[in-house]
Design goal:
single chain; alpha+beta; Structural Genomics Hypothetical 15.5 Kd Protein In mrcA-pckA Intergenic Region, Chain A; Alpha-Beta Plaits; 3 domains; nine-stranded mixed sheet; three-stranded antiparallel sheet; binds uracil
Amino acid sequence: MRLDKLLADMNIGTRSEVKQYIKRGNITVDGNCNVSAGQHVDPKTQTICCFGKELHYQKYVYYMFYKPIGCVTARTDGSHKTVMDYIKENRRDLSPVGRLDLDTEGLLFITNDGALSHNLLSPAKHVGKVYEAKIRGLVTREDIEAFRRGVDIGDDTLTKPAELTIQKADEISTVRIVITEGRYHQIKRMFAAVGKQVVFLKRTAMGSLTLDPLLAPGEYRELTKQETDALKGREDTDVR
Ligand code: URA
């Protein structure tokens, strides 16, 4: 790939800033500072240094992030912290896969692997997303049936069947819900359609990827090889 693209992808600077660094000799390829922005480099076989520090370039990177409440699922936002404010390795090409509302917490998968991201989000792939929720009002068997059939949330079509499990039925009920779509405010609108209000929402899994219980809100870690392989190989299968 081009040297300037590699440096910009790694967020060393904007494309024009990295061109300046290259011109000034701050970038070396195999110890040579006589390099050009458009030069093609192979980070697997060549040593690329920036201000004397070796860069470790990985083509694809995969992170699981525990999104806290109050953080926006976007790269930039005028008034709130965004997902990217938490990720130290803030590569220019990283994006969150799917969205969680400002007041929803839990698992966000972040990658620069566009093909995997596309597969996980494609409605045709029916990738299951698991949520824990607290609901104001008594959640009933009728709600389970309604969610299984699909709910009218005011869109052109009913929602796809969702699996609702009641863990505690009370004034504030505790439930688990698995959906395979990602419509805007989907779970809140599904409960609103049966006359109830979501008061807490946390995503715990997406496809084969489960939120690591050791992560606290705002923390993230790289996926293990097993997790990445499972997501790639089984991105069209459902959660347990
Ligand atoms: N459904 C919602 O209503 N909000 C989310 O953040 C995710 C799913």
